[in-house]
Every structure is written in C-alpha cells, then in structure tokens.
Amino acid sequence: MTRGLSPEAEAEVARRLEERFQSPYAARDADAIRRDPSRDPQTMLRPAYQRDIEKVLHTPAYNRLAGKTQVFSFADNDDVTRRGLHVQLVSRVARDIGRPLGLNLDLIEAIGLGHDIGHTPFGHAGERFLSAILHRRTGRWFFHNVHSVRVLDALYHRNLTLQSLDGILCHNGECEQRVFAPTGVGGFGDLDAAVRRCDEEGPGVVEHLVPMTLEACVVRISDIIAYVGKDRADAVLAHHVRPDDFDRGLAGDYNARALGTFIEDVVEHSLDGTSASAGAHGHIAMGEEAFAELTRAKRENYEKIYATTELSGEASRVLEELFGEVYEASFGWLTAGDEDSPIFRHHIFQLERQSGYYGQGYDWESDFDQTCVDYLASMSDDYFLTLAERVDPVLVAQLPAHPYFRDEGQGS
User: Fold this and answer.
1) pLDDT-flagged residues of the chain (< 50)
2) CATH number, domain at 82?
C-alpha cells in the first residue's frame, strides 16, 4: 500500500479543513432522538452527542473495561492492551477519519467509547462461554454489542440517543467490508426490533446489521484498524510470538504503519462518499488494495494469535467450566433469595441504586437467566477469578499464571 494522500485528495482535505466543511450526510445534533425526550436537553455548551460521551464515561461499566481482556488474559504485563484502552484507540482512529470527512466527531466518540461497554471478562472467549450457557438454558444468544446497548439503555438508563445506541449495536468489528453505506436514521422501534432479533435468531442477524449513520460506519471500520496492528504488538509483549513471526517483515512495526496507511486510505476513498453528490445517505469506503491487506492481516492474526492463545487450549476448557459453575452458583443465590450473596451485594443492589437516581428500577426477578448474564458480563477478569475461587478453588488453580517476576531471584 502507498503511504499518503494523493495530491487531489490532499487538496480536497485542505479545503475542507480550511472551510470547516460539514458533510451534508453528517449527523446533526438537532436531529438526535432520545427514548425520553423530556430528559437531557442539549445546550450550546453540551450538544446532544457530547452529552452521550459524558454519559458513557460516567457509567460504572465503562470503568470496568480497564480490567477486561482484549486478547491476552493471563500475562502480568501492564503494557498489554486491556479493553479500556482499546475503546479509546477506536475512538481516536475514528475521529482521525471523521474530521477530514466533515462528520460529527462527538457522535463518533460516543459510539467509539461505548461500543464494548457490555463486553464480558476474558474477551471473545468469555463471550462464547456465556452465550453457550444462555443458549442452552433459554434458546437465546449473547453478543457483546447487543449487551452494550442493554447496559446503557436498560440497566443504567442513560437515555443515550438512538444514533449512538445504533452505532454501538452495529459496530461488529469482526466483519470487514470494503464499502459501508448507512440505512438512514429510523426510530427506536427499529433498534428494539434489531435487538430482539439478535437475541432470538443469533449470528445470522448480528453479522448483517447495517448502521443508520456514516459516523457509525466510520467506527465500524475503525474497530478493525485499531486492533489488527495493536494485537500484534501485544502478542510480542506477551511473549506469544516473536517479532519476525509475521509475514512481510513488518512485525512490531506493523501497528504504526497500518494505522497511518489505513486511515489515509479510508479518507482518500470516502471523500466522494461524503460529498453532496454521494446518493441517498453517503458511504465510507476503503481502496481495494488496502482492503485486501486488512483482510489478509486479520486472517494472519487469527492464525498466529487468536487461534493459539491460552484461551484456545486447556485453559479454555477450564475457564469455560468455571463460567458454568459461577453461573450456576449465581442462579442458586437468586433462587434462594440470598441477599448476602455477591450477586445481590455487588450487582442487584448497585443497579437498583443507580436506577433509582433516574426514577427507574432493575427488574431482576422476572428472568433469573438474564440477571445472571447481566452479572457475569459486568465482571472484570480479576473479579471473576476471585469469585470463581470461592466457588471452585481447585479448578481455578489449573489456570495458567505468568507473574511479573518469572525468573525468581533474577529480578526479571
């Protein structure tokens, strides 16, 4: 791939920045839709999507992302990315793309920061384990993007805009596309119907979600751009691979090169899609060469990182069993009405207190399975392991550990 914008694109970006260009397809704060329009009026100092950013940041579930796995779970290395950093990186990449395209940067940031707020501990492995339990018991499915909407909309009653919630639901960074064309803004009925279909019908629905806004399309491609190179750097830090294990000789340098190149490519190929002649709702695109490289790099990551981490081997079997045991213990505490148990003290009572601030409640009694899902998904890695140790200390002891000081006596 070629670094840098073409002369024509560079001139167009310079013009747009000089004139403070706003795409005719950009989301306008004046068009923001809230479930409860009587709450959270926008002001000159706090426009609608800026308020959404603040709502995400002040949600307790956001703080817990700092303790949740991105890719590597058992490496005691403070430089390895956690999910809290990942959402910030996605937000940063997406803003870098959205600015020269004249899109709403506040909406981009709200979606970027909130897109993983419903993620489980232990990354996508934890997501699979929890979904398998829920599906076996109820026939429903669990997806972190769908649960992120539930966290912000139903559990913490943040009254986020439809546009932000839609972008969070549709971010789906596992599915790459070369061209993203939004559907146009609908209503909360469309969002609620999509959530129900995801819960009831599973992967076939989730994999085909289409965002309503160009801003959400930008976040969707930015999710992949943000993690495909960073996960490689983390794999080296975690001693999972050697720097020269990747093709094309880029190794640890891939992240910095990929970020700049992919961002420039998306901007170059999306200028027409954000101009006045782009059609119904505009589009965001990558060039064919860059898209082929992104697809190749992601596939290589699966082969050399994701498919071979500790959560793909014996540790996966142990952790999956622990997920089942913690779920069963939590369900038992609910059935017994044990208000001294962790699920009451650390989950139900906290959510009831938070919801009470908005005159709402937490309906934990009508569906114990959903309450257990809400609880397990809310946990950080460390909280889950501490609770699991109370439930089955023998099984927890079988999980791998990589302490800071591996070579005792050598100080390293």
Assistant:
1) 408-412
2) 1.10.3210.10
